[in-house]
Design goal:
Uridine Diphospho-n-acetylenolpyruvylglucosamine Reductase, domain 3, 20 strands, FAD, Uridine Diphospho-n-acetylenolpyruvylglucosamine Reductase, domain 2, alpha+beta, Glycolate oxidase subunit GlcD, FAD-bd_PCMH, globular, oxidoreductase activity, Alpha-Beta Plaits, Vanillyl_alc_oxidase_C-sub2, seven-stranded antiparallel sheet
Length: about 500
């Protein structure tokens, strides 16, 4: 691993058997994994470029067990890395050699559905799509829909503030979560938010959503449910250039139209997706927009006409509108399968995540093409065009010396470009380890220290998911969180990297 992570504590590693025995006393014999073969599947998350076998894996089944695990690890000074389904694309669940990996896969129940208040209470291991499946017969659904929704867990969605193809109109996870149960590193169980849109007290829910496992372990989530719209229709719109497609996106939003979803794919992604799912995507265009309008039927019909007119002014070369629910779902099937489909184009790909102002789409897409030539690596673009959330897929072969390094540099240049044009480093994948060392591109030293003070308020010993998000790990004492007595720091062994 070329990525710099905190130096492992050899003393903790030497205690593996003791730690495993203590955790088995809490969760039972079968819920601790410490064999080399058993640990191997946990060595990475969705960012497979980086791998590290964990010290051991513990699989609790109740909040009380999570509380006891964290309290014991806190007393013993042992690091903990929370993990959901392992679909994170930023290395947020990358294990550490001297850390316990806390898997939440057994927290997989829908605890309550309240249609009158339009909410559901679920455990963090419930998959994103399972929430909709649980309520769709009553005409409801859960709006955020990441491409990995069949596998990604709601706890991971909360950690990363995940989005999806419909986040343009209906918001990210943070806009659709009402409350959460959280276990702090010392074992204390707290509740943040509630069952209403605006809970009383300090908005700690806004801190928890998107905190990437740095402040606590989520063991229960209360989510908003929405009624299924009366009508929803999708359009496929082809363009002769990605620049014209980008201009069309900006003009649709500028006209006051907010589609339910607005996605773009370039030629390599179009061809890969069509070969994968065969839904009838046009293969003679350079860019494809998928635009969905929803609401009452008359509104959908009117807005479809408006979008078609705007697309025509930007040189659209083909427009196809769904006529059935099956056809609409087929349009989206290709987009949602785009990431695995691109796997046909190269042995490996590096999925990036950055966000830019919509008006900068043409400039950024053009520059990415130039960077592709500079690094000698292909790139397929699949992204949430409506809100400027880019997902360039950099194609490389890890078996060829130097290609992974070039892919990383290519990705770093894309993210720097996002910040340069007024955007941000991430839209929904989080910072994790992937963007950690780029944080100074976006934040000054004072900004980063202030963010770390929030971390210290929840986790003063810095035991939860260390090595993620912050490029330099400061002792909490250095940030004013702890008192230094006679020049002695309370936790002198905390690593700096």
């Amino acid at each position: 691993m070329s990525l710099k992570m905190p130096e492992p504590d050899e003393g903790v590693i030497a205690r593996r058997a003791e730690i495993a025995a203590a955790l088995r006393a809490i969760v039972g014999e079968d819920n601790v994994i410490d064999s080399p073969t058993g640990l191997r599947p946990y060595e990475s998350d969705g960012l497979t470029a980086y791998r590290q076998v964990p010290l051991l894996v513990v699989l609790p089944e109740t909040t009380a067990q999570v509380s006891r695990i964290l309290a014991w690890c806190s007393e013993q000074g042992i690091k903990v890395v929370p993990r959901g389904s392992g679909t994170s694309l930023s290395g947020g669940a990358l294990p550490l050699e001297d850390a316990v990996l806390l898997g939440l896969g057994k927290f997989n129940r829908v605890l309550e559905v309240d249609y009158e208040d339009r909410l559901a209470v679920v455990q963090p291991g419930v998959t994103n799509l399972a929430i909709t499946k649980a309520v769709e017969d009553a005409g409801f659904y859960y709006a955020p829909d990441p491409s990995s929704q069949i596998a990604c867990s709601i706890g991971g969605n909360v950690a990363e503030n995940s989005g999806g193809v419909h986040c343009l109109k209906y918001g990210l996870t943070t806009n659709n979560v009402l409350g959460a149960e959280l276990v702090l590193m010392d074992g204390e169980v707290v509740r943040v938010g509630g069952r209403t849109l605006d809970a009383s007290g300090l908005d700690l829910l806004g801190v928890v959503v998107g905190s990437e496992g740095l402040v606590g372990v989520v063991t229960e989530v209360t989510v908003r449910l929405l009624p299924k719209p009366e009508a929803a229709r999708a359009m496929l719109i082809g363009f002769p250039s990605v620049e014209e497609a980008g201009h069309c996106v900006a003009d649709v939003i500028a006209s006051g139209i907010i589609p339910a979803g607005m996605e773009m794919m370039d030629r390599p992604a179009i061809h890969a997706a069509e070969a994968f799912v065969k839904v009838g995507y046009p293969l003679d265009v350079e860019a494809l927009l998928i635009v969905e309008l929803d609401g009452v039927a008359a509104e959908c019909t009117h807005l479809l006409e408006e979008v078609e007119a705007i697309a025509g002014r930007h040189g659209a070369v083909g427009i196809r509108v769904s006529t059935t629910e099956e056809e609409r779902n087929a349009f989206w099937a290709g987009r949602k399968a785009a990431f695995p489909a691109v796997g046909r184009l190269a042995p490996d790909y590096y999925c990036m995540d950055g966000t830019i102002p919509r008006r900068q789409l043409p400039r950024v897409l053009k520059r990415m093409g130039e960077l592709s030539e500079h690094y000698g690596l292909g790139v397929a673009n699949v992204f949430h065009a409506g809100d400027g959330n880019l997902h360039p897929l950099i194609l490389y072969d890890a078996n060829k010396p130097g290609e992974l390094d070039r892919a990383e540099e290519f990705g770093n240049d894309i993210l720097r470009l996002c910040v340069e044009v007024g955007g941000v480093l991430t839209g929904e994948h989080g910072v994790g380890v992937e963007k950690r060392d780029l944080m100074p591109e976006m934040f000054g030293e004072d900004d980063l220290k202030q963010q770390q003070r929030v971390k210290c308020a929840f986790d003063p010993d810095l035991l939860l998911n260390p090595g993620k998000v912050f490029p330099t790990l400061h002792r909490c004492a250095e940030l004013g969180r702890m008192h230094v007595h006679h020049g002695k720091v309370p936790f002198p062994d905390i690593p700096r990297f």
